[in-house]
Amino acid sequence: MNLPEPCIAIPVSLRACYKAWRKARRGKRPSANQLVFDIRWLDNLLALKEQLRAGHWQPKRTVSFIVHHPKTREIHAPYFADRIVHHLLVERLEPLFEPVFIHDSYANRTGKGSHAAVDRLQQFMRSLDGRPSGDGWYLQLDIHNFFNSIHRPTLYNLLCQRLAKVEQKGKIPPAHALALRSLCHKLLAHKVTELVRDPIAAALLPPHKRLANAPAACGIPVGNLTSQFFANVYLNELDQFVKHTLKCRYYVRYVDDFILLADSAEQLQLWQARISEFLQSHLRLRLKDEVRLQPLSQGIDFLGYRVFTPYRRVRPRVVAHCRAKLFAWERRFVRQNPQGMWIRVTAQDLSQLQAMLSSYWGHFSHANSVRLRHNLFAQFSWLAVLFTLSPNGEIGARWVLPGVTFAQQRDAMRTGEPKAKCFIQRGCRFHLFRERLPAWDYRPEQMPALLIYLRRTGIAYCVAKQTGWLRHGTRRREVCEWFFPIPH
């Protein structure tokens, strides 16, 4: 790599650091070092700004951990202050590289994403459908051990070449280009030092998937914002080769998974050989051994979907993962016995279930999956207790009682479960409302024995507890326990 001066000032303002800090925090579960940073965030942002402006900033060690879904891989979580620098760098590099990226690269780009990639693929399939030459063929390729195989000097040269071009065109001043090269160099030349969170799980990971075992001068850490951007810069060379040298019209890439479509299998086989040669000679990468070359009528397994020309289905493995998580939740919180079905959970458990199910439902909504969603509700009957399911497959939480007054929440609970005895907490008492009769009040210590009696005698009930406050000062109440007897 062409080494820049070791201490190059990075012209950055406090406002830019503040914006990057907000982006680094957005949508993330706070880590320990983030909490430490946030306690005195202004002082820490000022210190980070001074480090950058003095050219003294250096990456710190990362925390390494293993994830198993959707596949087993190693993730590196950078130090929180480093994440702020990553946002600062990518925010400045993106406008310079976006003009040279092709339209059909969909990973980690604004306005793109996995669903847009699947939509584009299906659009290409429909363009080939019905041609005189037949339905068409597809070639699906993947790069072996991609992130651990990226040659950092080659990547750095690609970054420098683009920065030199935009500098020559006058789009950025020379000092700005030098500062960006310096930050890129510090990230790529830095030897990643890691704190392994789970050494046992790391030891079970295949050695070639560990960044620590990558060849010399190869590998960038998965989990860094800069690594996602650098991956697009690196494989942009492949994109340009496929589009301008091979002249492939129908091509879609998402990270290192890419698909080419053509009228004939012979054309795709020829392209595969040339792509393999290009990757080895220019980028020091190689393709995975498993190559899919099939007619479009067989469907394409891509980004969680099985894509056909007129429709798409959810990938069976994704459905299996969803069922496995629902089975695990059922084993923890749903008890089936001869008397009936008993569900007892906390508000946090219900929120986690809703987040998990909403994530899957969001994925399912981009496929023809209304019947699938209804089948899941039929298979897991307790889901109908917790959620509403509309005819088009949308879900809604039933345990959060609507209303801005206690009376409205009470009536909503009685309407939702008309055949059950409804206990609702008000202050330090649980009220059992009866039709045209005064309500009965129970102290919290009386409730366990009463509920055991109702379960033994086969009487349906539900219990709503106070879980917080609404904006207008009313108590928030959520149902957290249900019992329904088995009909005889």
Describe this structure in words.
The chain is α+β, with helices and mostly antiparallel strands and 488 residues long. The chain has 17 helices and 19 strands. It has a seven-stranded mixed sheet, with helices on both faces. Helix 1 crosses helix 3, helix 1 (14-25) packs across helix 4 and helix 4 runs parallel beside helix 10. The longest helix has 21 residues, at 225-245. The model has no long low-confidence stretch (mean pLDDT 91).
Provide a compact summary of the structure.
This protein has 488 residues and is of the alpha+beta class. The protein has helices at residues 14-25, 32-39, 41-54, 80-97, 114-128, 146-149, 152-168, 174-189, 199-204, 225-245, 265-283, 316-333, 347-364, 370-379, 383-386, 406-416, 447-456, and strands spanning 62-67, 73-77, 137-142, 194-196, 250-254, 257-262, 292-295, 300-302, 305-307, 312-314, 334-337, 340-344, 387-389, 395-397, 421-426, 429-434, 437-442, 461-469, 475-485.
